[in-house]
Specification:
Radius of gyration: 24 Å
Largest sheet: 2 strands, antiparallel
Order of helices and strands: EEHHHHHH
Number of helices: 6
Shape: elongated
Strand content: 5-15%
């Protein structure tokens, strides 16, 4: 039987109260103080590290950066799919199908013709015929 270990919050906020004294009849002032916050690195936020990882086109770095994110938008997932097509063509079709599944489930008002249009764009992207136009089509569908 595993015991649950309580997790400490990433950042705690406390209040310091300065009160009036006999010598200083000033009113009490509440000041917000952050305690035990994780330090901000020079790398910036997880999302900015992810954006820099995309620019490297290195899938290992991208996957490490994605692991730090709470979620990945469809537009960012599309960017990852494009890198996968360039770097690991054998894995591209699986990534494209997964993106299509997310597109169909995350867009409540999506129509069948939009899913077909996205699938056609991924097919053109896979064949490298009109890849730039295909990516533009997919980005348009994300909005």
């Amino acid at each position: 039987m595993a015991l649950a270990v309580p997790q400490k919050p990433a950042c705690q906020v406390g209040f310091v109260v300065s009160g009036a004294t006999a010598r200083n009849p000033a009113p009490k002032i509440r000041t917000c103080v952050r305690v035990a916050c994780p330090p901000m690195t020079s790398d910036g936020s997880p999302y900015s590290r992810f954006q820099r990882a995309l620019k490297t086109r290195n899938l290992s770095i991208i996957r490490a950066a994605v692991a730090e994110l709470p979620n990945v938008s469809l537009l960012d997932a599309l960017s990852i799919c494009v890198v996968i097509r360039e770097r690991q063509p054998d894995a591209f079709e699986r990534a494209a199908v997964r993106w299509l599944g997310r597109f169909a489930t995350e867009r409540p008002a999506v129509r069948l013709d939009a899913v077909a249009q996205a699938a056609d764009a991924f097919a053109r992207l896979r064949a490298s015929a009109g890849a730039s136009n295909a990516v533009d089509t997919l980005r348009g569908l994300c909005r």
